[in-house]
Amino acid sequence: MAAVLLGAVVLAGCGPSGSGGDDAPPKGSAGPGTRTSAGADPTAGTDPAASEQPGQSPGRSPGRSPGASTSAVPAPGETLVRVTRSGGFAGDTHTLVVKGDGSWSRLGAKAEPEGTGKLSQQELAALRTALREADFARLPRIATGGPKIYDGFFYTFVHGGYEVAGEQGSLSPALERVAEALPPFTQG
Hints:
Elements: H1 2-12, E1 79-87, E2 92-99, E3 103-107, E4 113-118, H2 121-134, E5 142-143, E6 153-159, E7 162-167, H3 173-181
Parallel strand pairs: 5-7
Antiparallel strand pairs: 1-2, 1-6, 2-3, 3-4, 6-7
Helix pairs in contact: 2-3
C-alpha cells in the first residue's frame, strides 16, 4: 500500500501534463530522468537542483555552468542524495538525506527525525563513486523488468536534479551499489 502511495506521490511531482514539457531529458540523454520539485523534499531549501527555474535543463541549477556535471560535489550543507525506501514486510517508509559533507539524517514516514550520523571519508567516497557510476541522467525514470519480490522494498532516489525509482528486484546493479553505500534505513 505504501509503495502505491509513494508511487502516486512520485508521479504527481512529474508535472501536470505528463507530456514531457520542461521535464523532458536533456538533449543527448539516453534516458528520461526527471527533475525534482521543491514541494517533494523536506530539505528542498538546501538542494540547489530542487530550485531550478522553468526552462532550465534538468540537473542544472542557476549557479551551474551548462557543461557542469550533475554529479559535481555539492557544498557541505547541500544535499548529495535523498533516498526513500518503502514497503517490506512491515510496510514502513524511511528516507535518508545525505549532505555533501557526509552528514546524514533519517526521516520516518511523516518526515519526523529518526536519527543522524556522518559517513566516514571512505564511506562518502564510496557513495560518491556509486552515484557517479549510476549516471542518473541516463537511467529510466522507473526501473522495471526485474523479478517480483513479495514484501520487497520500493526505492526512490534523488540525485543531481534527477529522480529515479523502482522495486527492489528491478533496480540496476548501479542503483543497488548506491543503496548499499547508504547508511542504514532503520536503527539497530
